[in-house]
Amino acid sequence: MSGNAVHNAKSTVAVIDYGMGNLHSAAKALEHVAPDAQVIVTADPEKILSADRVVFPGVGAIRDCMGEIRRLGLDQVVNEAIKSKPFLAICVGLQSMMTRSEENAGVPCLDLFSGNVKFFGERLKDTDGSVLKVPHMGWNQVSQVQTGHPLWQNIEDNERFYFVHSYYVSVANEKLIAGQTEYGFPFTSVIAQDNVFAVQFHPEKSQHAGLALLGNFMRWNGQS
Amino acid sequence: MGLAKRIIPCLDVDNGRVVKGVQFVDIRDAGDPVEIARRYDEQGADEITFLDITATHEGRATTVKTVEKMASEVFIPLTVGGGIRELDDIRRMLNAGADKIAINSAAVFNPEFVGEAAAKFGSQCIVVAIDAKSVSLPGQPPRWEIFTHGGRKPTGIDAVEWAKKMVDYGAGEILLTSMDRDGTKNGFDLDVTSAISEAVHVPIIASGGVGNLQHLADGVTKGKADAVLAASIFHFAEYTVQEAKEFMAAQGIEMRL
């Protein structure tokens, strides 16, 4: 964690809860980096839209995730929240904002960013011909593309973050790419635009580097 | 450059206390799992595995509290295993802050359970733990079988075939323990590790038998494991996780230093 405390004692961050997987680790890490902030894990649209910041996490299979997001009306909420306030999407949160995912025989997503979510494949090979395991699981390097973005502050280029996923995003507009990672080929591990920052890795499980990123997010005014 | 191999210290926890003994030089209460996890996190552990060997109902409630406390202080992936039999057990541990759940005996008695768990929570958090033991006689082609009940009960199931089946059911990772080597300090069973690693596309964690740092490196280079798990060499402060990582990196293994 980088040392600066979050100054606004009344700052609130909503962690969107759509009932999938472990959202609690994200909440716990946010509480750790911003002890003065109020961390709310919620599916309540009103609470999400009135929070100062929003975190959109997610693990699990995309069809179930999208099903719950739509059933709870959170598609509208996400659509609204990304217009203005600092918004951090993690893992399936990032994937669900794309146009479509290949997972579960094809699932339409929120289409907030143009592009698709693709499978690494079960026969993935490294550039030297060695077999790469899928899921891509463990600590891999993130090469910073939008250098100088406030969320990269105090984080070294090519720092390692914890990944666990079998699908990756492929964005239509390359200007959105804020971070890239190599796994058989370079893939987009971070996208950023205006007040939105979305990561494929799990900052809440990425020790110092991850906590630094979450701390940066809690201080961010949403401008890049 | 790319994905790093992982070092995973393992804690065997009974009723909220680490058993098998842990002896750090400068901590007073070496039995507290949260304190030990914090220490390994500081040393650069890539993940922590927490094996709950508690048999009682009350002990399980303690485990949930311990996992909660660990997850609010240690921000690296946490795998919890031991006694996971129902979807509710998984949900409870995930809600407490676990990231991955290891399923062992329940998978042998009811393979469908792995499929249900992966469908419900995603393959990324379902680790199938396999306890394998060599059953081939000298001169025969090597063969390993699955054993349950801490390696006491044979099942007749071929370990390599079983690993493939578990991945088909949705296991996202395999935690492979050699019952022949566990506790011996003679190193991993590299043959069964590489046989299973080559047979499935998901990551393999090698476990059982680590006595020195070369054993950890061999697990990756010869056993083709994606991660190596050890308990006693770290518990008794013979080596720190950091030393282990530097040793492996010096042999050309990609590590997070």
What does this structure look like?
The complex is a heterodimer of chains A (224) and B (257). Chain A has 224 residues and is α/β, with parallel strands linked by helices. Chain A has a single domain, classed as Rossmann fold, CATH 3.40.50. Chain A contains six helices and 13 strands. Chain A has helices at residues 24-33, 45-50, 62-71, 74-81, 92-96, 207-219, and strands spanning 12-16, 38-42, 53-56, 87-90, 100-101, 107-108, 115-119, 136-144, 159-165, 167-171, 177-182, 186-193, 196-199. In chain A, the strands form two sheets. In chain A, strands 2-1-3-4-13-12-11-8-9 form a nine-stranded mixed β-sheet, sandwiched between helices. Chain A has a four-stranded mixed β-sheet with strand order 6-5-7-10. In chain A, α1 crosses α6. Chain A is globular and about 55 Å long. The mean pLDDT of chain A is 93. Chain B is of the alpha/beta class. Chain B has ten helices and eleven strands. Chain B has helices at residues 33-43, 57-73, 87-96, 105-109, 112-121, 159-169, 190-199, 213-221, 232-235, 241-250; strands spanning 6-14, 17-18, 48-52, 78-81, 100-103, 126-134, 144-148, 153-158, 173-178, 204-207, 227-230. In chain B, strands 1-3-4-5-6-9-10-11 form an eight-stranded parallel β-barrel, surrounded by eight helices. In chain B, β7 (144-148) and β8 (153-158) form a beta hairpin. The A-B interface holds A 21-22, 24-25, 28-29, 31-32, 59-61, 122-123, 126, 131-141, 158, 160, 162-166, 182-183, 202, 204-207, 210-211 and B 1-6, 41, 46, 71-73, 75-77, 94-99, 119, 121-125, 172-173, 198, 201-204, 226-227, 256.
